Amino acid sequence: MKQVFFLLLLLSFAQSCVVDQADLSRYLTSGIENVEEAKNIEVIYTDSSYTVFILKAPVSRRVYQRQSVVEEFPEGIDVAFYDKSRTPRSWLTSDFAVRDQANRKITVQKNVVLRNDNGERLDGPELIWDEKSKEIYTDRFVRITRADGSVVYSYGFKSNEGFTRYELNAVSGDMNVDEVSGKPADSLHQEPQKIQPKPIPAKPTPVTIQERKDKVKGEL
User: Fold this and answer.
1) What is the mean pLDDT of the chain?
2) What range defines the domain where residue 58 resides?
3) pTM of model > 0.85
């Protein structure tokens, strides 16, 4: 009966979730009331026969409350996100994580790293992974190291799970504005129009009184 109950909880991780049967036997009573633990778990999320992500964790701890279940990963998680060709495209790791089962959100903290297969890497103190919208975001400070070695700093970040499209707020650092904003290079790096200075008119030559008299006589 317990294994069936655990299976239902694991299946609630996603709408279509495949869990290795061996993982169910790893759930043990922790000695703390309403708390159970599992060792070396692996959760595979599939959608229409496609593998979307694989989550691994050394320890999973479930705290059963009256109206909810909180799942903690006190030793962190390691997640690989896949595309439809079953190729891993990005990886998320952290030293701690907690899952809000009702809202299907996982908050990862401590030594958070998000990488993609383009050679980009994000480091930060916290990220929130929304399983429903398939977005990863934060309003905290992040540092992104790009494949060419340039570094971008930002307070605020939002990305798809593949870490192929992302938005940054309050950006600073060595960056290419085109790739962050998505605007055409012509509108961002157009050379400013050079304004030619107007020539300064020459100062009039002083005319003496005698020259003025001679000019009047000539006109008469």
Assistant:
1) 77
2) 2-204
3) no
